[in-house]
Design brief:
InterPro entries: Methyltransf_put (IPR025690), SAM-dependent_MTases_sf (IPR029063). The chain has about 160 residues and is of the alpha/beta class. The chain is built from five helices and seven strands; from the N terminus they run αβαββααβαβββ. It binds S-adenosylmethionine. S-adenosylmethionine binds near residues 40 and 101.
Length: about 160
Amino acid sequence: MSRLDSFIRRLTAQKILLEHVTDLVKEVAGPVLELGLGNGRTYDHLRENLPGRDIYVFDRELSCHPSCIPQGDFMIFGEIRETLEFCEPRVGEKAAFIHADIGSGDPTTDLATQSWLSPLVDARCKPGGYVLSGLELALDNFDELEKPDGIRPGRYHLYRKKI
Ligand SMILES: C[S@@+](CC[C@H](N)C(=O)[O-])C[C@H]1O[C@@H](n2cnc3c(N)ncnc32)[C@H](O)[C@@H]1O
């Protein structure tokens, strides 16, 4: 498969899954955490699909489209390994939904990310909350959920924290 085809499939899967989860998460109160602002595409889609919801965005840098810069209090700069652990005074309530799009494509870096990210995601997600991640996570307190049709196995991972 060409890299263009792969890119298109990845973004199509991301859009289908984000819309699927934002429908589910309408039933769960609480903030949304967007891990990895990047260009701001998925952040923009989240705020469009969850109007009025607090969305806290984490990244080490600001490299998004100017129309997608989160308002000051909602942008948390730094290494997610540090900021996610210590964001409670700012974010308050545990998250109804955590979207993590911080895969690097490098297998060693991604294994390391999976290892530190999994317990932090567990700690910051409320019971009944959802996690959508490009990287597989080790989440013992969660069920892995079926994904909508058309998503290639292994492309994305969808979890719900046990109540
Ligand atoms: C693939 S991009 C996210 C793309 C975004 N979902 C979009 O739709 O535009 C990943 C982003 O995560 C950030 N990132 C990756 N690992 C990080 C880490 N450990 N701490 C902070 N930011 C990180 C990178 O700086 C980059 O902006």
